[in-house]
Amino acid sequence: MNFKKIILRKMFRLRIIGGKHTAIEHLTKGLPKHAVGEAKNAVKELVKEGFILQKQTSYGLQVSLNPEKIAEISKIIEE
Predict the structure, then answer these.
(1) Which of 6, 41, 58, 63 lies most in the core, judged by the most C-beta atoms within 10 Å?
(2) Using CA atoms, how far apart are residues 46 and 49, in angstroms rounded to an integer?
(3) Gap between the Cα atoms of 49 and 33, Å rounded
(4) Average pLDDT, whole number, for the chain?
(5) What is the share, in percent, of the chain residues with pLDDT greater than 70?
(6) pTM
């Protein structure tokens, strides 16, 4: 499974871009239990690549898509 593509597609579909953010745990919902760890690692890789932004809040770490890379993200999703 290409977890990076799955996560980017889900965030794009739900419009979790820029100021709108969600917990990493919410991104892994709907995936098989044995794949949750791999999906969380994919999120960390996407953060390093700059496709996902992190935001520290009082209730935990939140993530959102980088609005400056939406064009690249949409190309990845369409592949």
Answers:
(1) 63
(2) 5
(3) 25
(4) 94
(5) 100
(6) 0.91
